Amino acid sequence: MTSKETARNRSAALRSGAELELGFTDLLANGQAVGRADGVVVFCFGPLPDERARVRITDVKQKYAVAELIELRSESPARAAPFCPVFGACGGCQLQHLEYRGQLRWKRDVVREALARIGGFAGIEVAETIGMAEPRAYRNKMALVVDHRRSPAGFGFYRQRSHDVVPVAACPIVTPALNADLARLEALRDIAPVRAVLEDARHIVVRSARASDASVVTVTTAARSERVRHAAPTLMREMPRVAGVTNSFDLASANVILGRHQEVVAGTGEVEEALGGVRFRVSTDSFFQVNVEMLERILSYLEGRLVMPCRVVDLYCGVGTFALFFAAHGCTVHGVEENPRAVAQAAENARANALDRLAKFFPGRAERLLGAPPLREAMREAAAVFLDPPRKGCDEVTLGAVADARVPAIWYLSCDPATLARDLKFLVAKGYRLDTVQPFDMFPQTGHVEALVHLEYS
Q1: CA distance 35 to 65
Q2: 243: helix, coil or strand?
Q3: How far is CA 148 from CA 153, 186, 195, 202, in A?
């Protein structure tokens, strides 16, 4: 019997609608537990490793099946009671049913497993995950989906693995300030100008700042909307913390949250945050960490490991978060960022903090700029390169330029263990040695984990 025939026979036994009892052994980043039935992998949201559950098969593929939880038959000691009423429906959190110490252990294991499986770093020491004292109410940015099924339109988050909308009155993961903004938006949605703008809106994005106790509201529409401009005075009058309203439009695809253009229609398009002795102006469309407390933990970790004098090249620098931290400690920094708006904000932040003599910023893609002056010279003189790429990781041209310059040290901050492991494998093959691997829980209650890795040229 061929493997395909075997798979078909097993899939027939696991027909859609069948109910069975399974033991579960693993947990995926999307919150699905992993079990097996008749040799076929079964994914199910709800159970935890070391639990047994009765499940109903909902979908059967050639190599796996998907099930829904009917009833837990045994519970893990690490199980916790979810604290959000829409957990399991809303796609924002995946791990509220796992107690927090268990989340931290699981995230360390995710990093370690990715490094071993993808990078070939079997036996590498991964430090205990650094977590939060209170792992709730940390997000300083929320992206609300406008639910046009309601009248007037309401707000929610996407359902798990779906574009259906789960209505929310509050979110225990965002800051209290953002929950207050959400409550005011809910109260305003039947007022004429707000009701009108919601007819055009696809998303409402709100970014808040702890230091300034202010928010910026961004309304995403397919095209520029005059209704946003008309509604802005009402939003700013009725939402006292809101410092500005912007209209984001010209969508690259139907699935994006922000458009390619952003226009300030009232007040300011930025909020001011402060950490590490530096003040930052940040807009909703620029990358800035959503968890300021954990960002401070990362900066504190780095501060104890700075070797002076220091010349740093900061790739994927965003609005200058790490570049200006290094500059504030006396380092000379060259920052590279492809988002021109973020580069402009980084330069403004440098001037506002009197750090523009030490920190210079360059707009463009890292792989294109590193081969030309002045970045080529900066790489040759650098004591360290700081990498904080998007989830897809770095491209080989960028990594090759870093390796060819034989920069003595690399700090790599990653939000995806798989692409991190892939990129580390490339760098080690070019002569670098892994020194430390430190996970940080930037996103408690979710399957995401941040890891900071230090490499040295050997």
Answers
A1: 10
A2: strand
A3: 5, 14, 11, 9
Fold of 3-74: OB fold (Dihydrolipoamide Acetyltransferase, E2P) (2.40.50)
CA 258 to the chain's CA centroid: 15
Instruction: Catalogue the active-site residues.
Output: 415
- 3.40.50.12780, 3.40.50.1100, 3.40.50.150, 3.40.50.1820: CATH of 285-457: 3.40.50.150
CB 156 within 8 A of CB 189: no
- Average pLDDT, consecutive stretches of 10 residues, N- to C-terminus, the chain (458 residues): 52 81 95 94 97 96 94 97 96 96 98 97 95 97 95 93 91 97 95 96 96 96 96 96 97 92 96 92 90 96 88 95 96 95 94 97 93 91 96 95 95 97 98 97 97 96
CA–CA separation, 169 and 173 (whole Å): 13
Q: At a CB cut-off of 8 Å and minimum separation 6, what does 418 contact?
A: 114, 118
Any idea what DSSP says for residue 413? E
Q: Classify domain 141-273 by CATH architecture.
A: Beta Barrel (2.40)
User: What pTM value is reported for the model?
Assistant: 0.92
Q: What does the pLDDT look like over 117-167, one tens digit per residue?
A: 999 999 899 999 999 999 999 999 999 999 999 899 999 999 988 889 999
The 8 Å CB, 24+ separation contacts for 224-229 are 224/249, 224/250, 224/261, 224/263, 225/197, 225/200, 225/201, 225/249, 227/193, 227/196, 227/197, 227/199, 227/200, 228/197, 228/200, 228/201, 228/265, 229/265, 229/266
First to last CA, the chain: 52
Distance CA 200, CA 222 (A): 8
Q: How far apart are CA 411 and CA 455, in angstroms?
A: 7
**CA angle at residue 53 from 51 to 55, to 5 degrees?**
145
Tally of CB atoms within 10 A around 271: 28
d(CA 135, CA 6): 46
